[in-house]
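Pipeline run #58 for the internal structure catalog. This entry was flagged by the ingest filter as a single-chain record with no existing model, so it goes straight to prediction. Upstream metadata was stripped on purpose; only the residue string is passed forward. Reviewer on rotation: M.T. Logging verbosity set to normal.
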Amino acid sequence: MTAAAARPLRLGALGTSSIAWRRVLPTVARMPEWDLVAVAGRTMKKAVRFAEQFGCAAEEDAEALLERPDVDAVYVSTPTALHHRWAERALRAGKHVLVEKPIGVNAAEARALYALAAERSLVLRENFMFLHHPQHARVRELVESGRLGQLASLQAAFCIPPLPEDDIRYDVGLGGGALLDVGVYPLRAASLLLGPGLEVAGATLRTRASDGLDLSGQVLLVSLSGVLAEVAFGFEHAYASTYTLWGDRARLTATRAFTPPPAHQPLLVLEEQDREERLALPAADQLMLLLAEFAGALRRGGGNDAELGAESVAAMTLVDTVAATARRIVVR
């Protein structure tokens, strides 16, 4: 093993977001694969706060962070509308990139970033943690083994209660709205479980009268094999993070599908006509698994998994279609 391969990979954090403070950077700090060397935010005050918490340098601005020769990869957690801009700048600076979900505000931004990463042989990953949790592989095993019989439908929902009025996710100009923040989860789950080629058969968004911000929505999808998927998301509900696959023999529910805490023991509920089976699975830290996969890709010398890029672009294409075709109901 070379000295470069043996040392931790050096990460720079671009953005001082809540998810960076609460989840991503504390997890980075616990992993031997990573060394957080610097952080830059919208203000020096925020950068210093993060630097003091995580024991790294505070940079005056993002450009200074990108110019550092001791940064191998950059974690971008700016507001959604700025994901593409700063991920692109990081790639052009020769850095590998982990960018918060969604990777951009539309499919064109996603496509452009993956093309740039491929051109420069750099690793680009989108921080969709749930895709790395083993519970979904177990779900797919049960479906493929025939336990549900002929699959007919999928229901998926990721909904949260209303946010504080000044929350950034209520800012249209910064890429706010329920579709981009929480809707991308069940849409991505539908692609994961039903395969590529999903089509939007119908969509409705509840929007805010003052600026058209989408507060919640529902989407009907159709898979290539004719399976129907009903997707719900929003900022107007008691918490839900779940999906159910329904076949002619049984139905299967993942009870905490998208944001299970690291110590949470996932529960799958398999319901047959006269029987219910509750499958308790081992706990897993889906963020740590994602960060380990990202590190492994860098260790292998860069480059991207073309399938991951295609899946990301396909998911954002669904978002584009929903945004363009949804019936909008003004609610307040």
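catalog note: Residues 39 and 58 are 5 Å apart (CA to CA).
catalog note: The radius of gyration is 20 Å.
status: ready for reviewer M.T.
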